[in-house]
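Extended Data, record Protein of uncharacterized function (DUF962)
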Amino acid sequence: MHPFKSQKPLSLWLSEYAVSHQNPTNKRIHYICVPIIFLTIVALLYHISTYLLAVVTIGVLWFYVRLSLSSFIAMLAFYGLCLGVAVFAPVGIWFWVEVFVVAWIGQFVGHKVEGAKPSFFEDLQFLLIGPLWVAFALFGKTPARQS
């Protein structure tokens, strides 16, 4: 196992994630809820402990850099945006908890519409692939489902 390279290529991660994200309604829900969930996690960690936030951030960004440089850059930029919102938004921790819960409800509604269980039920790493899938989809780079 090479510590600087993911064992699974990015294209495979994205195509496996896409399998349970084919329905247009589910996709739209994910395009909204996944970034919100990422934001709320950054905000919650910021409000709980900046040290914990730093440790989690290093781990998450390490995951992305092992996938590809473009993944790392995209998620670093998004993380920076989320951190800025978390620091400067005039709301407290309970606001972020409520938004987190509502966004997750949205995710599960989307999967009910899709008729497929969430990818992270198979592998928790898909919780980090979801935000990347959304980011790449916004730039037209999400691969179609592979048969």
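Summary. DSSP finds six helices and no strands in the chain.
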